[in-house]
Amino acid sequence: MPMTSQRTLQRLLTLHSWAGIVTGLLLFVVCFSGAVVVFKNEIDLWANPSLVQLPRAAQPAPLDTVLSHLRTRYPEATVETIQLPDADRPAYFAFLRTPGAPGAQRTKVALRADTGAVVGPVDSQLGQTLRMLHVFLFFGPRWIVGFLGVAMLVLIATGIVIHRKILAELFTQRWGRSLRVVTSDLHKSAGIWGLGFHILIAGTGAWLGVAPLFEQGWRYLATGPAPARAAMAPAPVRAALFPAAPTAPSLDALHAAARQALPGFEATTLSLRQWGTPEGQVRFTGDLQGHLASTAHVDFEGAGGRIRQVHDPRTAGFWSMVNALMEPLHFGDFGGLPLKCLYFLLGLTPAFLSITGTLIWLDGRRQRASTLSSP
């Protein structure tokens, strides 16, 4: 083999090793939490067994009834989001922000699907906590995890070039050899067997984390800095300054209009902003029947119910469609429990690779140190 090729392979091996060592711990945390978070809804129900006992409803209670119950029970709180019942969620879930609470505390509240009656605050959000760990590392911006996806793609690309005899190494496992050899064989075979899945997870993760960063940068270069957004006053103050619009339509009427405006639309979440004021807005976000796209939404003005925007990723262009497919492909939430189990098992392999890669690197350093200290 020519010397240049040997030098190139050595440089790629060095890049592969150091990229793995520098990002290894964070990759382990992100990949392990990602493997578990595919069961986010199941974990939340497991952590709140009383929610499992709530009756499901073939025809859920009207959204206006749900909002009325929330305002009666929590008159000082601002209702920000309501999640509709579905196959994974047996109840309505609302996110409220209470003025005056420490940090304007955000509370998750459960409501019965059949009557809309308030059950009470959700005791544990373990599944959501795991998702926050996976997506944001709790407090970091999402682009940090996105760059970890880029690092994972670099590891995959360099690994493919370094281990060119993929088919031969696919079934190579020398159990009777040294720990270093056994670990190395496990590292290579696990990486090869899960190669397609690893590319999918790394690529979609990189897109979800980094693409918005480039989009914001491009928008800044094209249109300049966005105007500063005024701080929002607490709900009671806003109510005094902006009395409720008399023509505000019902949420159920808007829900029906959203389904009519976007054929095949199945709303999963509605978000309220300054609802009950002339500046109020509501957004219905959800899925499209027979399609993986996850970014479909319909926006309305709160006063009068005029449609502000209809986003259909099927007709919004190629890149819009790509973006709409990223989250379902990354989290595997479109194929039911069997697909979640497959994502879980395959999702553990990158965490395993980070462990075995670190062990191989440490053993290599030990052997080099031993060689240099030998007379």
Q: Please give the order of strands in the largest beta sheet.
A: 4-3-2-1-5-6-7-8
* Span between termini: 32 Å
Q: What is the overall number of helices?
A: 13
Q: What is the ordering of alpha helices and beta strands?
A: HHHHEEEEHHHHHHHEEEEHH
Please state the CA-atom Rg, rounded to the nearest Å.
25 Å
Bin the strand percentage.
5-15%
Q: What is the average of the pLDDT values?
A: 86
Structural overview:
Helices cover 56% and strands 13% of the residues. By secondary structure, it is an alpha+beta fold. An 8-stranded antiparallel sheet has the order 4-3-2-1-5-6-7-8. The longest helix is centred in the C-terminal third of the chain and has 38 residues, at 336-373. The chain is elongated. Residues 229-245 have low confidence and may be disordered.
Which key features would you list for this structure?
8 strands; 375 residues; eight-stranded antiparallel β-sheet; alpha+beta; 13 helices
Quick structural gist:
The protein has 375 residues and is an alpha+beta fold. The chain has helices at residues 3-37, 40-47, 49-52, 63-73, 126-136, 142-162, 166-170, 179-193, 195-223, 235-241, 251-261, 318-331, 336-373, and strands at 78-83, 92-97, 106-111, 118-121, 265-273, 281-288, 296-301, 307-311.
Q: How are the secondary structure elements laid out?
A:
Blueprint: H1 3-37, H2 40-47, H3 49-52, H4 63-73, E1 78-83, E2 92-97, E3 106-111, E4 118-121, H5 126-136, H6 142-162, H7 166-170, H8 179-193, H9 195-223, H10 235-241, H11 251-261, E5 265-273, E6 281-288, E7 296-301, E8 307-311, H12 318-331, H13 336-373
Antiparallel strand pairs: 1-2, 1-5, 2-3, 3-4, 5-6, 6-7, 7-8
Helix pairs in contact: 1-5, 1-6, 1-13, 2-5, 6-9, 8-13, 9-12
